[in-house]
UniProtKB/TrEMBL annotation:
Residues 2-368 form the Endonuclease GajA/Old nuclease/RecF-like AAA domain. This is AAA family ATPase. The keyword Nucleus does not apply. InterPro entries: AAA_GajA/Old/RecF-like, Bact_Antivir_Def_Nuclease, P-loop_NTPase. The lineage of its organism: Bacteria, Bacillati, Bacillota, Clostridia, Lachnospirales. The keyword Nucleotide-binding applies. Keywords: ATP-binding, Nucleotide-binding. Signal peptide: none annotated. SUPFAM superfamilies: P-loop containing nucleoside triphosphate hydrolases.
Length: 427
């Protein structure tokens, strides 16, 4: 697999091979994280997008049914006395709209009007039969306008909306705004391309379906939102996606779980040695970390290093990391002691080895880079490991393949140490 990028945000040009583990090294503000966001967005915007489009239509129909019922009900009540004496459907009855929308999606014209008429039967309390029938046919016409939308058009809109959320509406080249931003995924000889002009005009081509999701891990601090993410503002699209995974219920699939645990037993053993327990949900629905003796720890009180490993452990135990998925790790070494950096590096390598993940790592640490290089050789996956250097090209960035010349990266990342050594020698 290969990711091609042109004039996207501050990245002028990049051609990145994604075959096992890919490491992008470089200084700050050289576009490393942008590559990860583009990769995550390409996968997550298109993963099961046909199902998402169908669900979107269903939600629109459900909203339409509910709005028209409520609008007719409340605007036709005659007086305050009637507001008290007429029973207004409770919140639990809102499931009726969802069920009706689902039935309508698969019904013929005759059955559609029957479903709407049944749903609106209690409007007889506030409007006459003729008005109610007219409303039902009016709603049917609006429902059909939603159903007649081409699936491809809905899918394209969903993909575009996801890109807008990932990049906060700013995708085009910051220094050449008239140029077209392009992100191209090449998978098994097939192309998926997203072209964007003026941050709003999308040209999307898809020759192959995306069969896997991408999990993006930025800061371990995201775990602090596990009990509040549904009500928190300002979280990025990647963070929200990760929190959904971390908060998911453990699937009731004992056989599959045992098979997965057997395959990744070395990984789980390693994780159990560097974490202090499992994430569990109490009776009130709040998440805590519990050790083997069921001592509860507030997640917010955990160290960043513990959180970094606990995120991986939780995703594995909940079955949220699947074979051949994509994982993006943005500077994972930041919050880790050098010894734990080594453990985390080996963990990444083992995840690729046993689950055949596509893993993209960004880093500016020579220690972590060397750890990845060492453990990929130890576990015989160095042949599917590629290295890139993010370099400034004027105000923009290009990505240089340095797989055969890693020494150039070490020299760049070692410059701060050379500076310190020079200062020390001068004294």
């Amino acid at each position: 697999m290969r990711l091609e990028i042109q004039h996207f945000s501050k990245i002028k040009q990049a051609s990145i091979k994604l075959d096992g583990i890919t490491v992008i090294a470089g200084e700050n503000n050289t576009g490393k994280s942008t590559v990860g966001k583009i990769l995550s967005c390409m996968f997550n915007s298109m993963y099961k997008v046909d199902e998402k489009a169908s669900q979107k239509k269903k939600e629109q129909i459900e909203s339409l049914l509910r709005y028209n019922w409520q609008n007719s009900w409340y605007h036709n009540l005659k007086n305050d006395d009637q507001r008290v004496t007429v029973n207004v459907p409770s919140r639990t009855s809102r499931k009726r709209y969802a069920n009706a929308a689902e039935l309508i999606m698969a019904a013929d014209e005759e059955r559609k009007i029957e479903i709407i008429s049944e749903l609106y039967d209690n409007l007889r309390n506030v409007i006459d039969d003729e008005s109610r029938d007219a409303l039902c046919h009016e709603v049917l016409e609006k429902v059909n306008s939603i159903l007649n939308l081409k699936n491809e058009a809905v899918e394209q809109t969903l993909i575009a909306d996801t890109f807008g959320r990932y990049f906060y509406g700013q995708m085009n080249d910051l220094y050449e705004p008239e140029s077209e931003a392009k992100a191209i995924l090449l998978i098994q000889g097939k192309k998926i391309q997203v072209g964007i002009k003026q941050n709003s005009e999308y040209m999307i081509e898809r020759e192959i379906s995306v069969m896997h999701e991408a999990i993006s891990i930025d800061s371990p601090a995201i775990m602090d939102y596990m009990n509040s993410w549904e009500y928190s503002d300002g979280l990025s699209e990647q963070d929200l996606h990760l929190l959904q995974k971390l908060s998911a219920n453990i699937p009731d699939n004992a056989i599959g779980k045992l098979m997965a645990e057997e395959k990744i037993s070395d990984i789980l053993k390693m994780l159990s040695e560097v974490t202090i327990g499992k994430v569990i949900k109490n009776e009130d629905g709040d998440f805590f970390l519990a050790d083997e003796e069921m001592h509860y720890f507030e997640i917010g009180n955990l160290s960043m290093g513990i959180k970094a490993f606990t995120i991986i452990r939780t995703l594995l135990e909940k079955g949220e990391i699947h074979e051949k998925d994509v994982m993006v790790l943005d500077e994972p070494e930041i919050h880790l002691h050098p010894e734990w950096q080594l453990i985390y590096a080996e963990l990444i390598v083992l995840l690729e080895k046993y689950l055949h993940l596509t893993i993209l790592i960004t880093t500016h640490s020579p220690y972590f880079l060397e750890a990845i290089e060492t453990y990929t050789k130890k576990h015989n996956v160095d042949h599917i490991t590629n290295y890139y250097l993010a370099q400034a090209d004027g105000k923009e960035t290009v990505m240089k393949d340095v797989t055969e010349n890693l020494q150039s990266v070490y020299q760049l990342l070692a410059k701060p140490f050379e500076k310190l050594e020079s200062i020390q020698m001068s004294k």
